[in-house]
Amino acid sequence: MSFLLFAQADEVTAVTTVLVASAVSLISAAPVAARRGGFSVPSEVRRYVAGSAVLEVIAFIAAVAALARGPASVASVLLAQFATVVLLLGIVVLRERPAPHQLVGVGLAIVATSVFAVST
Predict the structure, then answer these.
(1) What is the sign, positive or negative, of the torsion defined by CA atoms of 59, 60, 61, 65?
(2) Could you tell me the residue ranges of all domains in the chain?
(3) Tens-place pLDDT, residues 85-114
(4) 3-state secondary structure of 95
(5) What is the pLDDT of residues 54-71, one digit of tens each?
(6) Less packed terminus of the chain by CB within 10 Å, N or C?
């Protein structure tokens, strides 16, 4: 649903869309965080959290821009492949060993996305 809504936000810039979506997420999460002790992050991982946040915002802006410029049907399918990218990064960067069913899922996702891309 969010991909469809982002695709309709072509009257504003991608940065504005991400700013509004992030503000809504923060407002929604604040009561839960307040009940659980706040938004504290241990000092030894703050640098990694900040880096992850910057990369997420850049990816979010790129996603919203893709949805605004191209067909939402293609962009949303490609955006939904983030789990495949995360698994591949885990294999390459963290040297994780995924279970066989995870590898089958990645293979099926890549094949399905390729078939969809060829058919459009």
Answers:
(1) positive
(2) 1-70, 81-120
(3) 888 888 888 888 989 998 898 888 888 877
(4) coil
(5) 888 888 888 878 877 777
(6) N
Report the distance separating Cα 29 and Cα 23, nearest Å: 10
What is the reported pTM? 0.59
Task: Name the one residue in this structure whose structure tokens are 């490609």.
Answer: 78
What are the distances in angstroms from CA 63 to CA 40, 69, 72, 104? 28, 10, 10, 26
Mean predicted lDDT score pLDDT of the chain = 79
Q: How far apart are CA 26 and CA 85, in angstroms?
A: 26
47 or 78, greater pLDDT:
47
- Write the DSSP assignment of 13-63 as a string of letters: -HHHHHHHHHHHHHHHHHHHHHHTT-S---GGGHHHHHHHHHHHHHHHHHH
Provide the 3-class DSSP secondary structure of residue 109.
helix
For the record, the structure tokens of 98 come out as 């995924």
